[in-house]
Design goal:
This protein has 90 residues and is α+β, with helices and mostly antiparallel strands. It has two helices and three strands. The longest helix has 22 residues. The chain is elongated.
Length: 90
Amino acid sequence: FNLDNSEMIIAKKIIGNYAKKIRHIVEYSQLKLEMKSHKKAKNIKFEVKAVVNFEGGVAAAEATEFNPFTAIDEALKKVLQEIEHKIKEK
């Protein structure tokens, strides 16, 4: 993650909250996030990829936003929804 210390604190808080939500639904072995930043003119876009390995399979999602926290939130929200969907199918 290409964030400063104060931004990392916020990012870790968001990730921690989603980790708890996911843990309530399913036991997972790995929660992985990857962030890339792309400079477009004067703006920076943040691309976040999230992957969760759990007993029933793998859930992955990505989001691209100008705000890094929104990108993290969107990617993890999509992963959470995918996990819930896969659990309901069983």
